[in-house]
Amino acid sequence: MGLSIKRVKQKVFAYRIKSPLWAIASSILLVAAILVVLIHYGVHEQVLQLLKWFEAQGAWAPLLFIL
């Protein structure tokens, strides 16, 4: 009849996993963490150079970026 605490915790955890807001929040945190690491080690400068090179390619840039 009554739900045990373990069962309630499992249902709450399952709800959190299914919630799209948790997925969005975790994705934002993951991207932020990656950006922090890139900036800390200076890799972001190489990424910016790569993006400038893509921009210099003109109309071919979208195709090259996808490949």
Give the SSE layout.
Elements: H1 5-18, H2 20-41, H3 43-56, H4 61-66
Structure, described:
The protein is mainly α and 67 residues long. The chain has helices spanning 5-18, 20-41, 43-56, 61-66. The longest helix has 22 residues, at 20-41. The model has no long low-confidence stretch (mean pLDDT 80).
Strand content: under 5%
Shape: elongated
Q: What is the alpha-carbon Rg in Å? A: 21 Å
Mean pLDDT: 80
SSE string, helices as H and strands as E:
HHHH
Total domains, how many? 1
Helix content: over 70%
Largest sheet: none
What are the low-pLDDT stretches, counting only 5+ consecutive residues below 50? none
Q: Please give the count of helices.
A: 4
Termini separation comes to 57 Å
- The assigned structural class equals mainly alpha
Number of strands: 0
Features of the shown structure:
4 helices, 67 residues, 84% helix, 0% strand, single chain, mainly alpha
Concise overview:
With 67 residues, the chain is mostly helical. Helices cover 84% and strands 0% of the residues.
